[in-house]
Amino acid sequence: MYYNDRVLKTKPHLITRSLIPENQETPIHFLEDSETPSTMTFRRNHFIYPDISIQAYFLTITGSVKTPVILHYNQITSMPSQTVTALVECSGNKRAYFEPKVFGEQWTEGAISQGTWKGVPLSYLLSFTGINEGAREIVFLGGDSGEKKGLHVHFERSLPLEKALVSNVIVAWEHNQKPLSPKHGFPFRLIVPGWYGMASVKWLKTIRVIDTQFSGPFQTDDYVYYPFMDQDKDSVPVTSNHVNSVIQQPLDRQILKPGQHEVTGIAWTGEGIITSVEISLDNGATWKSASLQNNPHKYQWMKWSYSHVFERNNEYTIKIRAFDSNGHSQPNKAFWNRKGYGYNEISQIIIQIE
């Protein structure tokens, strides 16, 4: 927006998907830097925000361990720390695009953010307690709770032992060099790089080691791929992020002047790095390589761009597909599942040139 030759900066706002509980996504074209500000980081909740104070807060590590412990906030924040820059994406990101439609928060493309998280490695915490032989999973209980199918439950999920003990899985207390905000997990949040956001449990209160398979409602009911509308066969759990991308500029259905324009966006994946991004300006008939704008880093998005001279009186269907180091790429058709997780169909916009 221009006025008297001065650029008037517009402050972006989150897009509300629901108010109680609060669920808001980021306008995707504002994701420019490697760190999304806390105020612009998407918010995903199943229940209302918990009321937690540092004075009354303790983190309990219990279950199939040699020495259970109860730790105060100050004890944990004084431990050796690690910093991880990683994206967090809701597994329901882009759910609004599934056909046939599915129930759930109708996220478009902005249920994703990237930040720098500081905390203590989970493996370091568990080195104090020890883990009993035969341990199988680690369960993480958050401070948020409410009604689900007539029962009062906490948000609670598990990780298999081999994933939980990876060095970059941390119990974080800082986000972008500041204490975690109350809306993003204060005082502690589990960060699990490479997995969808449901694994990064917020308001972490209890860590419990178990020697069985956990079956809480947010583990075996929600966050499961159900391929069929009316039956549960062939279901598999939601885990790592799918390779994916978005087009940030131009906007879908935008009208542009003829001439040279930059098509830009971001691409990301779970357990790997983005190796290439391809663009089609003719609805997928031909593909060309887009330019990658930053060095590849595992668990972080890749910015990409492509410059093209667009001709007058034309309509362009622009498609984008990303490829990663594990041989995965975006499919022509997303894998439909009845709860609407993991949408990663080839990204597409249509623009018109006057």
Q: Secondary-structure blueprint of this entry?
A:
Layout: E1 2-3, E2 6-7, E3 15-18, E4 23-25, E5 58-63, E6 69-72, H1 73-77, E7 82-89, E8 112-121, H2 122-129, E9 137-148, E10 151-160, H3 161-164, E11 170-175, E12 178-179, E13 189-191, E14 204-210, H4 217-220, E15 224-225, E16 236-237, E17 244-249, E18 255-256, E19 259-268, E20 274-280, E21 288-289, E22 291-292, E23 302-310, E24 314-324, E25 347-353
Parallel strand pairs: 5-14, 18-25
Antiparallel strand pairs: 1-2, 3-4, 5-6, 7-8, 8-11, 9-10, 9-14, 11-12, 11-13, 15-16, 17-19, 19-23, 20-21, 20-24, 22-23, 24-25
Note down, in words, how this protein is organized.
This protein has 354 residues and is mostly beta strands. The chain has 2 domains: 15-237, Oxidoreductase, molybdopterin-binding domain (Sulfite Oxidase, Chain A, domain 2); 244-353, Immunoglobulin-like. 6% of the residues lie in helices and 39% in strands. It has helices spanning 73-77, 122-129, 161-164, 217-220; strands at residues 2-3, 6-7, 15-18, 23-25, 58-63, 69-72, 82-89, 112-121, 137-148, 151-160, 170-175, 178-179, 189-191, 204-210, 224-225, 236-237, 244-249, 255-256, 259-268, 274-280, 288-289, 291-292, 302-310, 314-324, 347-353. A 5-stranded mixed β-sheet has the order 6-5-14-9-10. A hairpin with a 7-residue loop joins strand 20 (274-280) and strand 21 (288-289). The chain is globular. The protein starts with a strand and ends with a strand. The relative contact order is 0.15. Residues 1-8 have low confidence and may be disordered.
